[in-house]
Amino acid sequence: MNKYKVKIIPENIEVQVEENKTLMEVFAENGIEFDFPCGGVGKCKKCKVKIIGKDGAEEEVLACSTKVKGDLIVDTSKKEQKHLILIEGVSRQIKANPSIKKVYVELPNPTLEDHRSDWTRLKESLGYKDGRTSLGLLQELPKKLRGSNFKITAVVVGDEVLGVESGDTSDKLLGMAVDIGTTTIVGYLMDLNTGQELTHVSSLNPQTKYGADVVTRITFASHEKDGLLKLHEEVINEINDLIVKATKQVGYKPEDIYALTIVGNTTMHHLFLKIHPEYVAKAPYVPVVKEPVIVDAKELKITINEVGKVFVLPNIAGFVGADTVGAALAAEMDRGDKLRLLIDIGTNGEIVLGTAERLLACSTAAGPAFEGARITCGMRGAEGAIDHVYLGEEYKYTVIGGDLPRGICGSGLLDVIAGLLEVGIIDRNGKLLPPDQITNELGKKYRDRIVQQDGSWSFVLEENTATGQPVYITQKDIRELQLAKGAIAAGIEILLEAYGAKVEDISEVLLAGAFGNYLTPRSACKIGLIPPELESKIKGIGNAAGVGAKIALLSAEEYQRAVELSQQIQYIELCAVKEFPEVFAKKLKF
Amino acid sequence: MNKYKVKIIPENIEVQVEENKTLMEVFAENGIEFDFPCGGVGKCKKCKVKIIGKDGAEEEVLACSTKVKGDLIVDTSKKEQKHLILIEGVSRQIKANPSIKKVYVELPNPTLEDHRSDWTRLKESLGYKDGRTSLGLLQELPKKLRGSNFKITAVVVGDEVLGVESGDTSDKLLGMAVDIGTTTIVGYLMDLNTGQELTHVSSLNPQTKYGADVVTRITFASHEKDGLLKLHEEVINEINDLIVKATKQVGYKPEDIYALTIVGNTTMHHLFLKIHPEYVAKAPYVPVVKEPVIVDAKELKITINEVGKVFVLPNIAGFVGADTVGAALAAEMDRGDKLRLLIDIGTNGEIVLGTAERLLACSTAAGPAFEGARITCGMRGAEGAIDHVYLGEEYKYTVIGGDLPRGICGSGLLDVIAGLLEVGIIDRNGKLLPPDQITNELGKKYRDRIVQQDGSWSFVLEENTATGQPVYITQKDIRELQLAKGAIAAGIEILLEAYGAKVEDISEVLLAGAFGNYLTPRSACKIGLIPPELESKIKGIGNAAGVGAKIALLSAEEYQRAVELSQQIQYIELCAVKEFPEVFAKKLKF
């Protein structure tokens, strides 16, 4: 038998191949990963490669059915480029392989000799041995097949056929990754074929009108008539609105969306699924479900394609939810042997510590100080917020949007308090000193900003503001921040202890979320939110939960990895740790 | 380590066992089949056995947790007896192991140390690694668990949890096997724990008002407004009525039923599932689905327990349906190396021929003659039907119910025609001879029963009838019967030829259905419906399709076997067999 030289690029592999082997066989035998969605029967036309003959002639062929008849070069790059997607923020490249797929097939017409049933014909043409489907699909199958002369596009998940569309519609396959924050909902509209983000949209979580944080929402769900139903419908309707808005922006329709991935904290997760979160808020704080939930969009009244599915990421515990799993996935916490720390700071600070070998997590009741809540002049990191402050020889600050300030957000608060500590205006216990007790030379420069209000001292940041009222921080604000930073710092210490590691063993500190992204590492370390030894190792990774949702949407393997992460991460309930109160008390100090 | 002598009865196995081994380990190591529904963790209390100590003291213990501490005898018979069920009609013993099960479990309460989610807690207590469930169950789970102090009964199929009930309800687990005949629907109400038939109920298929046979019903579905929906709703409503009737008879409620199995011909199957049977009736006669369909009872509006499932048996082809699969299952056509022939005679005669190695099937358009339809004085095998006739020196006949006759049913018709052939009143071509052409001495005795009506000859069976009108058969009736028997006889011949076997290779002829059960084998052979060589090998097996449905209901393995049978049986489309018209013409003769 003749043998020929086949060179595969860009892999740059050269092999001797027997005559008449198909390129599919060549790839399989040489460990080259390549998808054959229809099982290699020449139906889906998805396995196109470029071959370059000895004479330099180029031709586009199907790898499944093309036989080797002479020396040649096979260029698989067209395929590969299409599959690799760069995920920004976490700088990851992933291979697009969504859980939900479309496969175009042309079925042979039934004859007296080939009298397979409609469903057998379809599943066998898709290359499935044991295919699964719904009664609904069977009911519409005969008309669908005959109405399109047996040329159809199947919408599939694994070997389950969800739907059948007339003709070739395989280019229309969108998905949306949804991050349900307690305050904000963000939706990323993705093309599942190309992996490209088409647009993203966001809005206020309409549940906020029933309570600002998860505990008040759980109370509402428990005590108001139809409370759970109301909160559930609010979030569903808002997501449906975001779907309409996003698809409209880029010239698609909601029915072009076939999959949603969902991340959110455990309470948001439960409310989205109309599962009562009552017991999340009561000791021992157990969620109803932590496993991944995959559900028909129709069942949740999510208005995407009628056969669309919703893939909800798994939770870890009552206060470590699918958002943390998403962030851990984005940050690849399950890879590498260097100890890393991931902190997602919001009302709760979720902390994950570990390596590929072992991962621990806990949740700390940080309170909403970092989000600007319960702070006298606090506000979210929006236009008008003082986001950075510098107390040096010169006094400097920046305002989001650049106009006159309206208040101060988390990162600004952190800077001020760190600065006041540095210049000796706040002592280690968090006491704001009266002007006459300040001894630090630099601190003395700021004495006239310290004013008494209602018998307690405050520090004025700016009197000339957009509201006409000065922006300042009070002794009470400092106490709020102490509670928040103490909780997180204690969580870090308890996790390190449980892990059996020391601060200096940590190679990287990943901060997720808006606050984490905008804070000044030096300030975070100065106040002891993060151990000072780690200052140079701090890295903001943006909305990592949302990025995790996008990654899980684009790749079935990554969704599965999220499931494994949720099982792998060992949850430590701080309430059950005897030393916690002591460590917390210690960490309250600056 | 000490070793003890353990004798297991009734298996009568004696083994040496190391001290402290559990009986579960002993059973596993010695190949003794024994179920541990909760995985052997002591929760379900279903693995009770009797142990008899050296001193003769008897005790009932759990096999999963009882350790061997001395010589003993283990009696597993209580368990075994409960599991083995004798299925009458086909004389089969099967092990009750229904697809749907109930498992009572007592879950540990959540604590700060054991903070598993509700669902993790449940699935792990059931011994499932990857359990599955529905969103609906998750939504009700927290209240269900806490409302019953974490003592619940799970309704499961494999590792899928369908429902959760408070406390121990494991003794209430009914199922119904439903045989949807074109004319009659029969429901067998079974206790899935004991395998006992509690009662059976039947009624006229209400679809008959839209057409007597499958073809007229398909026409109705295709041409009438909402025709499919009407036919579908009729059968669903009738089954729901049968469910109410049957459960009432034995003091249960419809919600005590958790599973239905369904058999029926392909058209009945499709109408039950609201799948259009249009293409079953058009060449090349393909069904929409032949695979097994398992669907929530709720989706079909079948009013059993709200988590109940419907297990529809698979089809083989457009005219060989789930009823034939059920009959083949009941008759164990997939066992043995002796060639057997299974015939289910109705409007169509479905024929299966083969051994465990190879099975062939075909469907013959026998027409409804054997059911008494299109026969002048024909009627179904009900009260008043002449069911057996003997034309000897003395003229004898029997009537169902014993009163005056109202008409003649299939088995009676067969006897008359066989008798008339024997006494020379009908010739080999099927011609009813005028009185003056009869030469046979016995035949001459019956001359005065041959009368002319509308220019054609008839044979009068009885003038003194319940209706006041004579019961007789006409030349046309004989032609109808010839068509019916010719079709089946041709089918048998074609199958034998395809199989490469001869008539004399057949070891057994199994006749399913009422007609098959009541016919006189000698008559069937005399007219050539069945080759005469096989007369002594004919065996009626009753409503084998219904028996198959019962077996599949009681045992998940048997349901799976039905699925395999449907794949194993190779369908031969007689329309595609070139020789068929010729063989059929030959078989029309007596």
For the structure shown, list the relevant keywords.
Ubiquitin-like (UB roll), homodimer, Nucleotidyltransferase, domain 5, 590 residues, alpha/beta, six-stranded mixed beta sheet
Mean pLDDT rating of chain A: 93
The oligomeric state is homodimer
What would the CATH topology of the largest domain in chain A be?
Nucleotidyltransferase, domain 5
Rounded to an integer in angstroms, the radius of gyration calculated over CA atoms of chain A is: 29 Å
How many DSSP helices of chain A?
16
Q: What level of helicity do the residues of chain A show?
A: 25-40%
Descriptive notes:
The structure is a homodimer of 590-residue chains. In chain A, a hairpin with a 4-residue loop joins β6 (84-87) and β7. Chain A is α/β, with parallel strands linked by helices and 590 residues long. In chain A, α5 (214-223) packs across α6 (227-249). The first copy, chain A, is built from 16 helices and 29 strands. In chain A, 29% of the residues lie in helices and 26% in strands. The first copy, chain A, starts with a strand and ends with a helix. Chain A binds chain B through residues 110-121, 135, 138-139, 141-143, 146, 273-276, 278-279, 283-291, 293, 295, 299-300, 315, 317-318, 571, 573, 575-576, and chain B through 110-121, 135, 138-139, 141-143, 146, 273-276, 278-279, 283-291, 293, 295, 299-300, 315, 317-318, 571, 573, 575-576.
